[in-house]
Amino acid sequence: MAMTNRLRSTIPHLRKVLASDAVSSQRSNGLSVPLCANLTRSERHFATAPEAKEAKVKVPVALFGGSGNYASALYIAAVKAKEFDKVEEELYALVEASKNSPTFSQFTKDLSVSTNIRIKAIKDICAEGKFSDVTKNFLVVLAENARLRHIDTIAKRFVELAMAHKGEVKATVTTVIPIPPEEEKELKDTLQEIIGKGKKVKLEQKVDPSILGGLVVEFDKKVFDMSIKTRAKQMERFLREPVNFDIL
After folding, report:
1. Is residue 155 a contact partner of residue 179, using CB atoms and an 8 Å limit?
2. Which value, to the nearest 10 degrees, does the dihedral of the CA atoms of residues 69, 74, 80, 84 take?
3. For residues 18 and 144, what is the distance between their CA atoms, to the nearest angstrom?
4. What DSSP designation does 199 have?
5. What is the pTM of this model?
6. Are 188 and 219 in contact, with CB atoms under 8 Å apart?
7. Beta strand extents in the chain (DSSP E only)
8. Rounded distance, CA 67 to CA 168, Å?
9. Is the dihedral of CA 201, 202, 203, 206 positive or negative?
């Protein structure tokens, strides 16, 4: 009960901090995030039948690196085929299967398996799971290029695109105990007010006893650390500083 009360008392303070930060952010000049227009050529292989004069699809967030390029290419192919939700579900299902099946996980990472066997196995899995052509063709490209071992990383990058596509903003709150439902709702509403309309807060809870108390909120590349652990460190640094008696 005492811990719950401390969490409850922290949330109003967080509301003030976030509101203050939002005002200062509005006054500063923001930098626009460039859209990734030039993707890998492998993106062409994921689509099904090409359509005449297709509308150009751009990724909502620019991703970099090999995994980012593959995730971006899959996003474009899925949107063009109007199968985004299905492709997203299939990709996550495959990643989950890889986590739960040591055999399949080993298969994706074993570079000694020939390309033909990898491709055949992937096609069989897609047929059994009734995957869309977009997902199947994407996985075949990964198999051809020996990139199946990176499927988990690619999926994580795809999550970033999926959240941006849906207008979701991920917020992570870390506490020493799980936040009660009423406090979770209040915190989520506070973050929603700061982020504004047009985007939806997706709150994720983490439990970390090492912070000792209070909470740490991370969202939109910002961190608001109101943990007892951090406050104790700040107090320790303050006490270690020499006292200037001249100003007393």
Report:
1. no
2. -130
3. 48
4. -
5. 0.61
6. no
7. 168-175, 200-207, 214-219, 222-227
8. 21
9. negative
The first and second tokens of residue 35, run together, are 């859209």
Sign of CA dihedral 81, 85, 86, 91: positive
Question: pLDDT (tens digit, 0 to 9) for every residue of the chain, 248 residues total?
Answer: 444 444 455 555 555 555 555 545 544 444 333 333 333 444 445 555 555 566 688 888 888 999 999 999 999 999 999 999 999 999 999 998 888 888 888 888 888 889 999 999 999 989 988 999 999 999 999 999 999 999 999 999 999 899 888 888 888 889 988 888 888 888 888 888 877 777 888 888 889 999 888 888 888 778 888 888 888 888 878 777 776 656 55
- For 21, 64, 184, the CA distances from 197, given in Å and listed in that order, are 17, 28, 19
Residue 243 DSSP code: P
- What secondary structure does DSSP assign to 25-49, as a single string? HHHSPPPPPPP-----GGGGGT-SS
State the amino acid at position 99 in one-letter form: K
Q: CA-CA distance, 153 to 138, in Å (whole number)?
A: 15
